[in-house]
Request: fold
Amino acid sequence: MSTDGPSGRLLPAVAVAGLFAVLAATTLSAGFGDAAGFPADASVVHNVGYALFNLDEAASIPSEGFLAAFLIVAVALDVAVDGAIYLARREDDGSVVAAIGEALTDGGER
Reply:
């Protein structure tokens, strides 16, 4: 399919407009209910800490959902930092280390 002329752009434009209409109708017709807050004396940070050490009796609000999100974000950030360190590593002579190295090549020796 060629997108050179106006007819080639019509189908994607209609698809985007239709998707926007569906999302707008869904959002506007959804009932979100009343906002439910936490008690004034409850600390979310303390409750996540209690959940980390399995001290459920000290927690004043349920925090397992917060704990799962906290751990997922922690693992994702750890992977990102490890990858950045691996990619930024240099050899002693200042050259950049290849991501694969010489594991898959013979270095032109054969």
Remarks:
- The first helix runs from residue 6 to 29.
- The mean pLDDT is 78.
- The radius of gyration is 26 Å.
